[in-house]
Q: What sequence folds into this?
């Protein structure tokens, strides 16, 4: 039975990737995500709050922007860069705080936001 509190909320995020091992290494290093392998062509992930997956296939950058939260924006930016991500929009202020955009090794653009302090 589905949880009514989750009605109309993001439930799962799935990325196509040309290299599942590389995607897992990047997200584990940059964000500490945990993984469950379901064979050579699929790995599920959990970021501590949300589940998703990596499916083998040709990456299709674009689509909705996935935004992650970080309590320390600068440290998270360094972690993304150290893991091999590319910053495509330096940190900037917006009404809710500050954020930056990056691309992962498959070319997906994501963003990370944090409080302005």
A:
């Amino acid at each position: 039975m589905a949880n009514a509190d989750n009605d109309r909320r993001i439930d799962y995020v799935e990325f196509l990737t040309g290299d599942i091992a590389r995607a897992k290494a990047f997200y584990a290093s940059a964000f500490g995500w945990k993984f469950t392998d379901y064979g050579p062509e699929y790995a599920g992930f959990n970021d501590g709050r949300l589940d998703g997956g990596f499916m083998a296939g040709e990456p299709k950058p674009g689509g909705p922007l996935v935004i992650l939260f970080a309590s320390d924006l600068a440290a998270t930016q360094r972690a993304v860069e150290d893991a091999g991500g590319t910053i495509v929009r330096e940190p900037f202020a917006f009404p809710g705080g500050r954020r930056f955009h990056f691309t992962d090794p498959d070319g997906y653009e994501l963003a990370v936001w944090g409080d302005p302090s």
